[in-house]
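Weekly puzzle thread! Below is a chain. First person to post its structure in token form gets bragging rights.
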Amino acid sequence: MGSQTQATPTEDRRKSAPGAEGKGWTWFLLGITWAMIVGYSIFAGHLISAKKLYKPGDNVGYYIGLVGGVMMLIMLLYPLRKRVKFMQGIGILPRWFKWHMVLGILGPTVVMFHSTFTIRSINAGVALICMMLVSGSGIFGRFFYTKIHNGLYGRQVTLKGMKEEMAKTGSFNRSLMMFAPEIEQNIGRFHVRSEKMQGGLWDFLSIGFQAASLVKSQIKYLHKVMYAQAHEKKWDEGAIKQDVDKLYEEYATHIRLSINTARDTAQFRTYERLFSMWHIFHIPLVYMMVLSGIYHVVSVHMY
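Winning reply:
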């Protein structure tokens, strides 16, 4: 086992992404959404005549389409980087994946501006639809990916690792006895229920709703009990109140972590199956996008 660990290429070792990664992705998607809304308003909404800007076939429109097409081609280097032997030592794999995701969204956006949000031929429509399906499925795939990895570019999480993380909260739960023994008991019962989940769709959905409800109710109950005791012992005044507030936040954080880790453990295998099914769906769409895109480019230049 040790030799396998040492043989792992440095550039392919996955690391947990910082919290800013998720925020950056959210802002990126919001920016793309805003750009698409503005573009659609201009061209399809006729706020400004498209003829006064550009058309898909003139120089400006052509080069916008060229930029979008090149982005889509560069995006396809990621699967080659994973599978083609001579490329496997080039760069860090998580960075390849990052740009694969970014260009998979940005490329179709640029192509939409190239088309002026209008389908003018059957071959262009097929290419555009395939491209948007690939882009949309990539967003879903990213969501499933984050559920089975530590962060967007992190290593794949195993069930054993998740259960070890869940076990770390045990001693903290016992410390809740001094304030609210009912919370420890409720969390313990939830852990037992989560371990009995069979991985079906109903179990997957129900454990998610149960976890959200339990987190909300237990933190609310913790607040009620802690501050009632603080008021009784006159800890809700002066500097000591800051200590009570800090302790409450720590307890609330660990309650949330304990319940959500149990939920993630129960849902793990379902997310694995969903990711596998998504992958089967996504790959043919990529081939369809490439073939339809090539046909569109060839037909434009020939006719």
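Puzzle host: Confirmed. Bonus trivia for everyone else. Residues 1-18, 151-156 have pLDDT under 50 and may be disordered.
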